[in-house]
Amino acid sequence: MVMFTATGFVGPSVGPVVGGFINQYTWWRWTFYVLIIWFAIDLVLIAPAGPGDVPPRAAAELSPEAAQGHGGRKVDCAHREHGQVDLADIVTAMRRPFELLVFEPMCLNLCILSALLLRIVYPVFGAFGVVFTGNYGLSSRSWA
């Protein structure tokens, strides 16, 4: 899980450097091949370690109505699976991310870090075209 999580934070800083080396010494499509290979490695390492799903809960734990919902037999489902969602559930689901930002300092710090990284990295990516076409006289056709 550390490798998977670190990919999102290390990627914006290491990605352009690795991509630059790949594009300098190989064909540009190898940038995407390396991304696919990295994803496959992540998948192979994480898939066996992660839980497949949340263990099923009895419908009686969710509510007595759900337990008797199908002719008296017990079913393993929630109200959401039958389209019975009320406004309180929707408001709770929409409020939860903001509660995490306010009450969890680590979550707030990681969001600020991601915002700063993306604020720095994306303008740099946009400048590549301007620099290489204006300063070096390359066109987008010469990159393909």
From TrEMBL:
Pfam families: MFS_1
Source taxon at top rank: Eukaryota
Bilayer disposition of the protein: Multi-pass membrane protein
Name this polypeptide is given: Uu.00g127330.m01.CDS01
A single GO molecular function term of this UniProt record: transmembrane transporter activity
InterPro entries: MFS (IPR011701), MFS_trans_sf (IPR036259)
Keyword line: Membrane, Transmembrane, Transmembrane helix
PANTHER family for this protein: DRUG_PROTON ANTIPORTER YHK8-RELATED, MAJOR FACILITATOR SUPERFAMILY
TM helices/strands, residue ranges: 30-47
Gene3D superfamilies recorded: MFS general substrate transporter like domains
Organism, scientific name: Anthostomella pinea
Compartment(s) where it occurs, according to its Swiss-Prot or TrEMBL record: Membrane
Principal location listed in the UniProt entry: membrane
Any one GO CC term of the record: plasma membrane
